[in-house]
Amino acid sequence: MEASMRWAIAATLGLLALPALAAMQTDVGVLTCTLADHGEKDTNPDSQTRAIHCAFKPKGGPEEVYVGEIKKVGSQTELNGTQVLIWAVMGPSDRKLKPAVLEQTYVGDAAGDGLSADGKPPKQLVGETDKAYALQPIADESKERNATDSVTVIQLRLKSTPT
C-alpha cells in the first residue's frame, strides 16, 4: 500500500509539473536594432530616448522588420552615435511564432524606473502585453559595458514582414 501511495503522489506531482514545462522559455530568434543618429534627453539628465530600426530573425521563419523607440535610464552607458544593439528573443517553447509577435512594449523586469534595487539595469526586458516574450541582451565580451545594459524600455511596431 505504501509503494502504491508513493507512485500516486509521484504521478500527481509529475502531472502538476507538465504546465510549467510546457511554458518554459527558449531562444526563438535574434533581434538586431540600429539606433537613429540623434536622440532626445528627457527631463531627467540620465534619461535618453532614441528611434530604432530592428530586424527580427526567428529560428526557422522569415525575417520581420520593426521600428520603434528605445529608452535608457541611468548613466551607465550613453546611447551616442549610430550603434547596433542585439538581443536574444526568448519565448514559450510550446507556441508557434505568429507575424508581428514582437509588436509591443518591453520593460525592465525590475520594479519602478527599470533599475533593480542595487541600481543595476535589468537582466532582460519583458513584454507588457504578452509577458511570455522577453529580450535578453547579447553582450560583447570585449567590452566592459554594453549599450544594451542601460536600456530599460523598448517599444516595437511591425514595419514589414514577407507575404
**Number of E strands:** 8
Low-confidence stretches: 13-22, 111-116
Shape: globular
Radius of gyration: 19 Å
Class by alpha and beta content: mainly beta
Helix fraction bin? 10-25%
If you average the pLDDT, what whole number results? 76
Number of helical segments with 4 or more residues: 1
Largest sheet: 8 strands, antiparallel, barrel
Number of domains: 1
Strands of the biggest beta sheet: in what spatial order?
Answer: 1-2-3-8-5-6-7-4
Signal peptide: 1-22
Organism: Hyphomicrobium album
InterPro entries: DUF992
Pfam families: DUF992 (PF06186)
In short:
Helix content is 13%, strand content 42%. It is mostly beta strands and 163 residues long.
Structure description:
There is one protein chain. By secondary structure, the protein is mainly beta. It has one domain (25-160). Helices cover 13% and strands 42% of the residues. It is built from 1 helix and 8 strands. The chain has one helix at residues 2-22, and strands spanning 25-41, 47-58, 64-73, 84-92, 105-108, 125-127, 134-137, 151-160. An 8-stranded antiparallel barrel has the order 1-2-3-8-5-6-7-4. Strand 1 (25-41) and strand 2 form a beta hairpin. It is globular, with a radius of gyration of 19 Å. The model is unreliable at 13-22 and 111-116 (pLDDT under 50). Residues 1-22 form the signal peptide. Pfam families: DUF992. This is DUF992 domain-containing protein. It comes from Hyphomicrobium album.
